[in-house]
Amino acid sequence: MKRTSTRLADGREILYYDTGDGDGAARAVPDTRPLDVPATASGSEVRRDPLLGDRVVIASHRQGRTYHPPADACPLCPSTGERASEIPAPDYEVAVFENRFPSLAGDTGRCEVICFTPDHLTSFADLDEERAALVLAAWSDRTAELSAREGVQQVYCFENRGTEIGVTLGHPHGQIYAFPFVTPRTTRMLATVAAHREHTGGNLFEEVLAAERAEGTRIVLETEHWTAFVPYAARWPYEVHLYPRHRVPDLPALGDAARAEFPRVYLELLRRFDRLFDRPEPTPYISAWHQAPAGEGRADFALHLELFTIRRTADKLKYLAGTESGMEAYMNDVRPEDAAARLREVASA
């Protein structure tokens, strides 16, 4: 993998990831746009909910961010002679840059955009295994670098796809957040895992994975180094958790064998999601990497990916109702065992 780092016109960092040695000179194209230096480093504020203890990011400056531009004005496509975008190079394989409208910046963390392909009219599921492996390498590289930064407590790599999810840019891309705190979801996981360790001496992540493999009905696919299953208490109609068979805390810690096998496994899962419903457009989803915090809790944490869609049938979406949005008491319309069976049915031939 070749990594080339340069700067955009307003000082934000952009990195190009290429297979092989790449051509750094071809990527280090100057950004000629007349951009002002962003005044967003102090635009975010982290507040603590006194009743729940959760951190909430206040980022009012994001109200003016880019919202559903036409395809010919996409800021994530490569720049051309007629139009300059967020990516100055005329082509790229994988590109990562600091978000122009970040929720977290300066002392409150960092937000990056990761573009999986220069092709506007495709998706992650359409990538080949070599490109998917390069994305994994970029996720791992960013996790390692951002985790080492002073003040960063957790790195979160994720992809939102589909207007139904709330995506405002149609180009295939994801995001990488470097949080200055451990996120509420991870905090709850760590507390549960620690309590289990204290009472039983075992690792809860490992026991959940072993139980799913032994029970079998919710397994979606299994390979030598990865297991994908619908969780016993799934919150979403179609929700899959993907675990490496050997527990590691984060993406940089993945072994070579699991890393080599991941592209085939992940692309198969995404393609199955697209075959779930008889619709011409791709299935909307959120794909979320759960990684150990940079500080305490690493020893017992298990890296895993959670992939879910808000679509419950071909013509119905799963909206968060009052019980879920108001009380975090989820009501799932699809039995996890039925969801797993359907995801096995739509496997590639």
Following the backbone from N to C, one meets helices and strands in this order, namely EEHEEEEHEEHHEEEHEEEEHH
How big is the Rg? 20 Å
Shape: globular
Tell me, rounded to a whole number, the average pLDDT: 94
**Tally of individual helices:** 7
Strand order of the largest sheet: 1-2-5-6-8-7-12-13-11-10-9
Low-pLDDT windows of residues: none
Number of E strands: 15
Main sheet: strands, sense, barrel:
11 strands, antiparallel
Distance between the termini: 32 Å
Approximate strand percentage: 15-25%
Helix content: 10-25%
Structural class: alpha+beta
The oligomerization state is single chain
Briefly characterize the structure:
The protein has 349 residues and is α+β, with helices and mostly antiparallel strands.
Task: Characterise the protein shown here.
This protein is of the alpha+beta class. Helices cover 25% and strands 22% of the residues. The protein is built from seven helices and 15 strands. The strands form three sheets. It has an eleven-stranded antiparallel β-sheet with strand order 1-2-5-6-8-7-12-13-11-10-9, sandwiched between helices. It has a two-stranded antiparallel sheet with strand order 3-4. It has a two-stranded antiparallel ribbon with strand order 14-15. β1 and β2 form a beta hairpin. α2 packs across α5 (256-274). The longest helix is centred in the middle third of the chain and has 19 residues, at 129-147. The protein is globular.
